[in-house]
Amino acid sequence: MTTTMDIVVCLDCSSSMTSYFNHIRLDILSIVNELLIEHQSDVRIALIEFQSHTDYWITNIHPFTSSMNLFQEWMNAARTEGKNSNECKAIVDALDASLTLDWRSNTNFNQYHEKLVILITDGPPCNFLNDECSFNSKDLWKISDEFEKQDITLVIIGIEPSIVVCDDFYCALANKTGGAYLPLINALHVLSSVIPRAILEEETLTQLFRRADIHFDIEYNSLYCYSYVEKRVRFMIEYCHTMTDIRKWLFTYRYQPIEFIVDKIDDNDFEPHSPSSNRDYFHDFLCQNVNIIASTPITDDEGYRTRLPTTASTDSSFIHIIASSASSYRMEFDWTSEIDDECF
């Protein structure tokens, strides 16, 4: 069975990215150049540039191409500009726009088609810190549901240090689709290994990301430490259905004890079927069922989509966490909630 792949790069072009932009451009071109030279007939690349909702434009969409020269023209023409706003990133618009592109489908029995979106940013999405997006954008968490339905894998590349305020959310958003959150410092190494292997071998992107070594492939030499965010990531994936749920449970009450959260929650503030629909169940979940969450794979498919049989995998390296060498530094940035401290 042969494998083809469509890749969309969603690139943050807001002014806060200026000092990293040349580095990012070189990394992306390095990955794409190798892919298109070796697998030009099997790989297509698209580019979506986005800024902040406060800027005069939000997204600029370039459709799929197999031409390295054309893609390089797009990347070279990309510029950072606009207001330096880390709290209004039009990420939801960029990911929503990626769904409208002309993706190839898995209709050929002898060919498996991978779909990958690579989002690169240095800050939170527009509707992350505020109650709602004033620009009437869609719900970002629900957009990730559509990624799952269409078998699109999301990888988020975060630029430190500003990204640490929301790396737990980005990790959950990517893992929910079978993808991964990667600090910029390690992204080139991981993607240069994973993408070609998915094309050449009988493994999916999801399997390969899941089997990546957390410490040496993802955390190494960065501020990111998966063991600090793991419990929140698993909770978001299992029990949150909307961005309202994300904000209410994981950010509004970060410094409050569990008893305060349970007593103060107004069920009418939450979406139907959200985690708040049963207070006692939520409290029991937090304080009694921790071991279940910590030992269960992030999803149940073990990374298999349609290419291989759904045989249980014995490779669990993805969930064996080794503390990062940057752990002590990371503690200064981590917004540790009582969800982590009181009950665990």
From TrEMBL:
Single GO cellular component term: cytoplasm
InterPro entries: Thr-specific_kinase-like, VWF_A, vWFA_dom_sf
Single GO molecular function: protein serine/threonine kinase activity
Pfam families for this protein: VWA (PF00092)
Domain of life where this protein originates: Eukaryota
SUPFAM superfamilies membership: vWA-like (SSF53300)
Domain VWFA: 6-199
The protein's name: VWFA domain-containing protein
Native source organism of the sequence: Rotaria sordida
Lineage summary: Eukaryota, Metazoa, Spiralia, Gnathifera, Rotifera
